[in-house]
Amino acid sequence: MSFKSDIDIAQSTPLRPIGDIADSAGIPADYLEPYGKYKAKIANEFRGVLEAKPDGKLILVTAITPTPAGEGKTTTTVGLADALRKIGKKSIIALREPSLGPVFGVKGGAAGGGYAQVVPMEDINLHFTGDFHAVGAANNLLAAMLDNHIYQGNTAGLDPRRVTWRRAVDMNDRQLRFIVDGLGGRVNGVPREDGFDITVASEIMAVLCLAADIDDLKARLARIIVGYTREEKPVTAGMLKAVGAMAALLKDALKPNLVQTLEGTPAFIHGGPFANIAHGCNSVIATKMALKLGDYAVTEAGFGADLGAEKFLDIKCRVSGLKPAAVVIVATVRALKHHGGVAKADLADENLDALARGLPNLLQHVENITGVFGLPAVVALNRFPTDSDAELALVAERCRELNVTVALSEVWGRGGAGGVELAEEVVRLCEMPNTFTQAYPLDIPIHEKLDAVARKVYHADGVDLTADAAKQCAQLTALGFDTLPVCMAKTQYSFSDNAALTGAPKDFRITVRNLKVSAGAGFIVALTGDIMTMPGLPKVPAAEKIDVASDGTISGLF
Description:
Strand 12 (225-229) and strand 13 form a beta hairpin. The strands form 6 sheets. Strands 1, 2, 3, 4, 5, 6, 14, 15, 16, 17, 18 and 19 form a 12-stranded mixed β-sheet that branches. It is built from 19 helices and 25 strands. It is globular, with a radius of gyration of 23 Å. The chain starts with 5 loop residues before the first helix and ends with a strand. By secondary structure, the protein is an alpha/beta fold.
């Protein structure tokens, strides 16, 4: 059988009209706002209709520390939801929208893979329903009003040297990380240092994903801090009178987007903060809607469990009151061998010694979920044809020592049918009692929260704050922000803040070089290592392979 790419599979599978998908999910046509034949937004009023309905079970899908070998977290999420339907359970998916940065950069598309995809994958991976453009527009409207305020007299007393609000674009563009603008004479603005973040790192993206409704959205927008006065007093978006116009740009973006899997399972794709530089979860609104409509709501959090899952559990669950019933930790034998020191070119060869060296990465993630957060977990082992029986047995044996089951997953090649074993284990876990708790309480100092995440989740020896970060910590505490949760901005490739330390490193410390409050989102961002809020393109961007034919058919999207 000839190999089919993800986009070939997606384009060759007939899709059902979005009205049929909505009907199968229990969404009346009156609340559907179609964007073409196969995607739609759900009207705000529908949330009120759902309030009295009981919640289903929430399943969080996370993964081991990412490697170039790939893990398949989104593919597993989609395949699990399809598999739950195959065993007679009503499942609904809640996922993030992909950013154009990874689509055109290294990672390629982010709609699942093989026969476990959400579709139309080209739309989802590109402009979709325009949510990211709305977030970028609202971000840049605030930036424009901020600079205009300074130019027009600066009655708020904003210090141009202490502006913290940056512009945003949904593209990897290292050239825009640090810029100087307002040049060309007095009529063209006040010269100052500035810069761009990628849209998914914008606080407005986090605000959109954590907001409960339009009123909450506006209240959060008003609290956004754009900079400080010379007396170190915060200046907010509310003080600049930007909130109403920003909310007007975001009103449709606040509505969840409905699409489908290749097997017709309803899927909400809404919001998309990165997990290495933001909180890495889809919108609270979409997750809660999925819980009301399904017996099981399957969601995911970005990158490894030390990033997305930690933030899902410590930030999103705190804000929303959500409580997972079970966690799926995705791994592959290939990725674990990579953590054990095997080069990508040699991952197809059986290597039990390397697998044994790499397994501590998986086991540490498992122990964090079950021990630190008190949640039942299953390891979903994405099976590759090159995996040997001895390698699969070793993973199962080591996980069994932690009282965690390994379920083989073949959803990439078989769709939902390849995830039935995983689905049955997830259903079993969802009926088990759990002792869900967070990694730290909110009533301890900022430094202690950072230290708790570093020690409990990363297994570091502690946290060090640079002189700048220590000063910022004191300032944020004086301003009353010390009761907020922390959002660690850290490399996704290691438990540490050094991407080169794979596996489960020991004897290291985490260095925090910058602390910034996202007052609208409701958390403190801690920048560690050399993490940046504006990625760059690789030497050979994925964009070089993407094309469109004369009939409009897109190719090269993964």
